[in-house]
Amino acid sequence: MIGYVTLGTNDLQGNAPFYDALAKEMGVDRMMDFDSFIAWGEPGGAAGVALTKPFDEQAATVGNGTMVALEAKDPDQVTRLYTIALENGGTDEGAPGPRGEADANGLTFYAAYFRDRDGNKLNAFCMAKL
């Protein structure tokens, strides 16, 4: 089971408001807050997301093919998270919308893709009857 996912940053305090805004929409807050590390989520809850300056003090770089997926409660929240990301310095990687066909239960993967200010790729998604 995943406890949390950590992403590197070169500007912790500059990038933190991006994640504060996403966390607020998802009903959580900072659960850990240190000079070089901030984590958002709920202790004992679902997996959280953390942002840190690299321990080796080298520049943080984006992992090619690496992405953090944030589970939204419905398509409207997917859209809100995408909008919040762009309003807080993120960049578009794919507007909200269905991806693929509905499964046997009539559920469709609905997602939006974006990057934070450091270039880390995230997505907001849900499975929904559209």
UniProtKB/TrEMBL annotation:
Residues 1-127 form the VOC domain. PROSITE patterns: VOC (PS51819). Gene3D superfamilies: 2,3-Dihydroxybiphenyl 1,2-Dioxygenase, domain 1. Coiled coil: none annotated. PANTHER family: BLL2941 PROTEIN (PTHR35006:SF1), GLYOXALASE FAMILY PROTEIN (AFU_ORTHOLOGUE AFUA_5G14830) (PTHR35006). This is VOC family protein. It comes from Tsuneonella suprasediminis.
